[in-house]
């Protein structure tokens, strides 16, 4: 998605037709836990900290995509032009999509590991990196491993990535996970008891996007049945969803 700041560009507007960040992924809904440094760095980007390049890495489900999208939303709210690009959905298209983005204030490239077998995309990302730095813009990136461990074939791109602010996201502890899940439910107007949150964390995939999907199901089911989100009710909803 592209925020419509004063420096918006036609290429960015075209990308906005196909890709949007999820506005539910914001800083208020993210429990930092051991990741306070990363959250603080990305909040500064959103508010206009200039000429920064940040690379986030960590295991699936730790919140990399959440934080990239939160930074995009924050920057857009401040009137800055923003592009969020989920590379997993883009890598089969032409890397020319990365051209002419230096007019955008903040560019976020998610799932950088998807470029390991796409040398033309790696070259395009390298040139985008240079153009954004020359223009004094910000670039945010994320992947599952440190830059040197991504398996990228372009040494110049790896070298650039190793020279930026590299931040590792750690898994949350159990209590922080309960807090995060309860907070997401509360912001949707749902009351999620701690016992139910713990059940979900112990029996479901620990992934932010997946939990949002579950909350959608629970919201609809609880409204229809006029039931609270107790453990037995949640078990029933999950069983029905698995049978669909």
Describe the structure.
Helix content is 48%, strand content 11%. It is α/β, with parallel strands linked by helices and 244 residues long. It has a 6-stranded mixed sheet with strand order 1-3-4-5-2-6, sandwiched between helices. Strand 3, helix 4 and strand 4 form a beta-alpha-beta unit. The chain starts with a strand and ends with a helix. The relative contact order is 0.14.
Structure at a glance:
With 244 residues, the chain is α/β, with parallel strands linked by helices.
Q: Structural class from helices and strands?
A: alpha/beta
For the biggest β-sheet, the strand order reads 1-3-4-5-2-6
CATH architecture type of the largest domain? 3-Layer(aba) Sandwich
Task: Give the number of helices.
Answer: 10
């Amino acid at each position: 998605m592209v925020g419509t700041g004063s420096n918006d560009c036609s290429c960015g507007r075209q990308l906005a037709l196909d890709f949007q960040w999820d506005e539910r992924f914001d800083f208020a809904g993210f429990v930092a836990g051991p990741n306070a440094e990363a959250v603080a760095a990305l909040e500064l980007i959103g508010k206009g900290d200039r000429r920064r390049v940040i690379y986030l890495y960590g295991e699936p489900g730790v919140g990399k995509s959440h934080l990239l999208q939160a930074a995009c939303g924050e920057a857009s709210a401040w009137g800055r032009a923003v592009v969020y690009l989920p590379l997993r959905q883009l890598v089969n298209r032409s890397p020319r999509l990365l051209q002419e983005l230096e007019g955008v204030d903040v560019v976020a490239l998610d799932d950088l590991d998807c470029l390991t077998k796409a040398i033309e995309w790696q070259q395009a990302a390298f040139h985008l990196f240079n153009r954004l730095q020359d223009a004094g813009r910000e670039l945010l990136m994320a992947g599952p491993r440190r830059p040197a461990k991504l398996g990228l074939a372009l040494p110049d791109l790896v070298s650039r990535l190793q020279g930026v602010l590299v931040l590792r996201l750690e898994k949350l502890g159990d209590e922080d996970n309960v807090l995060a899940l309860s907070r997401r439910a509360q912001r949707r107007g749902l009351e999620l008891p701690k016992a139910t949150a713990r059940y979900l964390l112990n029996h479901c995939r620990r992934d932010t996007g997946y939990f949002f999907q579950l909350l959608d199901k629970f919201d609809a089911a609880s409204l229809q049945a006029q039931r609270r989100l107790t453990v037995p009710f949640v078990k029933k909803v999950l069983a029905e969803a698995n049978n669909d």
